Amino acid sequence: MPSISTSLSWFSILGLLFSPQTCLALSKKERLACQNPTHDPLKGCPKHTLLVASGSSNATAKKNTFSSIQSAVLSLPHDNSTQYILILPGQYTEQVNVTRPGPLYLLGQTSDAESLGRNTVEVVWHNATGSATTGSYDNAYTSTLTIAPTFNSSATGSGPTGNPVPEDTPFGNFDFRAYNLNFTNDYLPYAAGPSLALSTSYANTGFYHCAFKSYQDTIYVGKLANSYMSKCEIAGQTDFLYGFGTLWIEDSDLLMRGCGGGITAWKGTNTTFENKYGVYIHDSNVVAANSSVAPSMVLKCALGRPWNALQRSIFANTYLDESIRPSGYIEWSTKEPRVNNFTFMAEYKTYGPGWNRTGRIEGNVTRILTETQWQPYSSPSKVFQFFKSGKTGNTAWLDYSA
Ligand SMILES: *[C@@H]1O[C@H](CO)[C@@H](O)[C@H](O)[C@H]1NC(C)=O
Ligand SMILES: *[C@@H]1O[C@H](CO)[C@@H](O)[C@H](O)[C@H]1NC(C)=O
Ligand SMILES: *[C@@H]1O[C@H](CO)[C@@H](O)[C@H](O)[C@H]1NC(C)=O
Ligand SMILES: *[C@@H]1O[C@H](CO)[C@@H](O)[C@H](O)[C@H]1NC(C)=O
Ligand SMILES: *[C@@H]1O[C@H](CO)[C@@H](O)[C@H](O)[C@H]1NC(C)=O
Ligand SMILES: *[C@@H]1O[C@H](CO)[C@@H](O)[C@H](O)[C@H]1NC(C)=O
Ligand SMILES: *[C@@H]1O[C@H](CO)[C@@H](O)[C@H](O)[C@H]1NC(C)=O
Ligand SMILES: *[C@@H]1O[C@H](CO)[C@@H](O)[C@H](O)[C@H]1NC(C)=O
Ligand SMILES: *[C@@H]1O[C@H](CO)[C@@H](O)[C@H](O)[C@H]1NC(C)=O
Ligand SMILES: *[C@@H]1O[C@H](CO)[C@@H](O)[C@H](O)[C@H]1NC(C)=O
Ligand SMILES: *[C@@H]1O[C@H](CO)[C@@H](O)[C@H](O)[C@H]1NC(C)=O
């Protein structure tokens, strides 16, 4: 029987020869074997998998074991090679920054990889910006996890087009994946300025059975970022999905911890090619975080508001609880609505008590899509675009088996 690494390289070669679309770096079976706790934690993992263990674990004493995720990431070559990191149970208080271009898979150890409720790893950071107590610096400084080729490409900036990214900035990671990991930014237990759990720009990033928790601007999918989340949980209060790039959320729970701004706040960009930048929430649940906060939110939370007038946001085939206000989306503010013909704040077949057709029509900001209007956005391959060319079908980095 060939070792995993041998069969992997065969798989990669075959993938390159025939179809990069089907080139799965790690089969589900191999991934589960690696994540499953065993006496030797790396048993079942691809050769050269790095091990991260929190200080309290016995494994730290072992050679080649890292005590932080960032130190393991920094030990990797800045090249196109495929790399794996297995993280043992614990709470890791650190910021993790990934700049390398090659495939990188972060795996949380777990005996039940199908259930994010049993995730054993939490990566925590505490930072926010934009208030008198914090002072003001770019949102990029606050994030728990960042995947971007350079600091400047990850900065939010301000104005209609955000922070200017130098023309010669290369694409960053083209296949980053995280499985069974929780990312938290717990600066304060309420919206107190941007406080990112995830920041990703100029990169393709996939998250499976992961949790993201903060209160404001929890997830930033920045410029030229393609991000896919499946079977995840995202908890936030104010504008908790924001960005410039493309985010597809599938089969996940969006937990409202309060109502503030909207759930989505996107800043669209005019490009020479037709872009599909935007946030697409599909087959998911949008619900109050728990029964203690639910009563105060009834009919109050907005699906989103336009960070600029080119916002594109679609909730499709998704359940909405009674927290959602009758109009669905809202204007940015009364003084500055930021709504024009280009603003695309939409729903397709949402359902549940938060869906109110009369309210949507009266509110006059939400577009209710027909099947034909939904079609151009109805799958990840239609919205994930390649760097520079803008061609759609950039999906080789997605794992539909997770
Ligand atoms: C560390 O090893 C000792 C002795 O083998 C064992 O009793 C203990 O449970 C281990 N601790 C952890 C955190 O694995
Ligand atoms: C790394 O991969 C990217 C994307 O496939 C490619 O454009 C680049 O040339 C590769 N770099 C090296 C050093 O092989
Ligand atoms: C990870 O998040 C899930 C969902 O909120 C939770 O049930 C689980 O206990 C968390 N695990 C850790 C280690 O934080
Ligand atoms: C947040 O990070 C910034 C930039 O690194 C730092 O200046 C600031 O002190 C941090 N704030 C808190 C509350 O830790
Ligand atoms: C990650 O990037 C942020 C923003 O540049 C920086 O403040 C922080 O020190 C970096 N952290 C690590 C662990 O490299
Ligand atoms: C990053 O952006 C800042 C502010 O826009 C600029 O001053 C700096 O030169 C840029 N750094 C790089 C390496 O491009
Ligand atoms: C419910 O959610 C709110 C907002 O996140 C939080 O402050 C509170 O502790 C949660 N209550 C329970 C019982 O989990
Ligand atoms: C994008 O193009 C439209 C149509 O030309 C224009 O109305 C709008 O102001 C432009 N938006 C930005 C942010 O450049
Ligand atoms: C915006 O819509 C109105 C009403 O349908 C139409 O009259 C107008 O020409 C549109 N403007 C643009 C820039 O498409
Ligand atoms: C639906 O929206 C309309 C118009 O805003 C409102 O009068 C009605 O009470 C709403 N229905 C529910 C069940 O919230
Ligand atoms: C709906 O909003 C548009 C601008 O987005 C405006 O032109 C139109 O008059 C509004 N319709 C109603 C019925 O208020």
From TrEMBL:
<dbReference type="GO" id="GO:0030599">
    <property type="term" value="F:pectinesterase activity"/>
</dbReference>
<dbReference type="InterPro" id="IPR000070">
    <property type="entry name" value="Pectinesterase_cat"/>
</dbReference>
<dbReference type="GO" id="GO:0045490">
    <property type="term" value="P:pectin catabolic process"/>
</dbReference>
<dbReference type="InterPro" id="IPR011050">
    <property type="entry name" value="Pectin_lyase_fold/virulence"/>
</dbReference>
<comment type="pathway">
    <text>Glycan metabolism; pectin degradation; 2-dehydro-3-deoxy-D-gluconate from pectin: step 1/5.</text>
</comment>
<protein>
    <recommendedName>
        <fullName>pectinesterase</fullName>
        <ecNumber>3.1.1.11</ecNumber>
    </recommendedName>
</protein>
<dbReference type="GO" id="GO:0042545">
    <property type="term" value="P:cell wall modification"/>
</dbReference>
<comment type="similarity">
    <text>Belongs to the pectinesterase family.</text>
</comment>
<keyword id="KW-0378">Hydrolase</keyword>
<dbReference type="InterPro" id="IPR012334">
    <property type="entry name" value="Pectin_lyas_fold"/>
</dbReference>
<keyword id="KW-0732">Signal</keyword>
<feature type="signal peptide">
    <location>
        <begin position="1"/>
        <end position="25"/>
    </location>
</feature>
<dbReference type="Pfam" id="PF01095">
    <property type="entry name" value="Pectinesterase"/>
</dbReference>
<feature type="domain" description="Pectinesterase catalytic">
    <location>
        <begin position="176"/>
        <end position="378"/>
    </location>
</feature>
<keyword id="KW-0063">Aspartyl esterase</keyword>
